[in-house]
Amino acid sequence: MSGHRIGVAQGTAIYVGAILGAGILALPALAAKEAGPASLLAWLALLLFCVPVATSFAALGARYPDSGGVATFVAKAFGPRASGAVGYWFYFALPAGAPVTAYVGGQYVAHTLGGGDRMTIAVAAALLLAAFASNTVGLQMSGRLQLILVGLLAVLLLIAVITALPHSRTSHLTPFAPHGWGAVGQAASLLFFTFAGWEAVTHLSGEFRDPARDLRRVTILTLVVIGVLYLGLALTCVLVLGPELANTNAPLTLLLQRGTGSAASAVTAVMALLLTFGTMNAYLAGASRLGAALARDGVLPAALSKGHRPGEVPRRSLALLFGLSLLVCVFALVTGTELGQVMLAASACFIAVTVAGLVAGVRLLPRGSAVWWGAVAAAVVMSVLLLFSGWFLLLPLALGTVAVVRSSRTARRAEAAAAPVPAPLPSPAPVPEPAEQE
Fold first, then answer.
1. Which domains does the chain have, with CATH numbers?
2. Strand partners, 208
3. Residue 288: which of 118, 98, 41 has the closest Cα?
4. In this structure, how many other beta carbons lie within 10 angstroms of the beta carbon of residue 14?
């Protein structure tokens, strides 16, 4: 069955939603605390780093449009066993990442509106349920909804920037690097995850009407939108707030107060909701299709494979992700596990997926081309970053081992089923009995 396919506008909205996150509400202040006005260089450097990562995944998606995403790229480069490991990393990390993302959004909304823990949990639960419900209806609904939400978010961010700019002062740019140039690198490491998410949307490559053409356009548009929003917001925060920027937990709220006055809290709360929902909506769209593709390939139970074709809705895969997300929530509440620990575990898996996809790109993309060199450089940087995950690397190691074992069993069963059945040996001719002697 062929259903709705997404176009350039909806695809760009989903991509932007995957990259943007609630961290943008606080990170301009954290980066400025590390490096002062020189933190602007960290924003610019990471935006430039996104170019080879994004173009590598776009080139791979155009060549191999499939709901398996990075897992498909790795299968083409290194075989099904490696592909199963990568698929497990992304699929089983999402039930940890989604609830934490929802909770962070709930915290920001509750803090902005003066609520407590109950409001935080209520908002987080509502965000999580809304993201799953949107994807259950189908990509047509979630794509259109994402387009509306990202458009609204862009408008609100532009309002924050434009209304605050009259209060800017160039004197706030000096001293430019009060903590030394090395602090720019520290600010960049802090900001890194605000630019992550390109691996999440590779699973939607098969949903485009013309992947070879549309993925290139969507990638370029996403880079432009992200660049304008991030650099515009960071520069405005530095120019308007000055030294005050490094001492606040809610820079966007202060920025809006300068431009809009009393409406700042309400607008910031709406932004937090949009940012959180947009990220979860995009990741769920990709992960649910990945789960169906893994089931199609025998890495997950075959019952989950329904919905792996472009245009279909992988509701069984979504149901499993929802159940696992609930288990993570219950586990965290019962054991008192810190949210930061859960997020670091999920991040180790997501970074491993990105590294695997880029290494596959080095193997599959035209050797010596610009996009190939970009994949090489990005793979080196991401591999170094992965090492900083520390003991959280045990999680992708464990998931990868389980996936390889299951893939090996599936491969052996397939080989046994495909083996030719030997023809039965012909029956020996009957031996005549000796004649009776008289």
1. 8-413 (1.20.1740.10)
2. 6
3. 98
4. 28
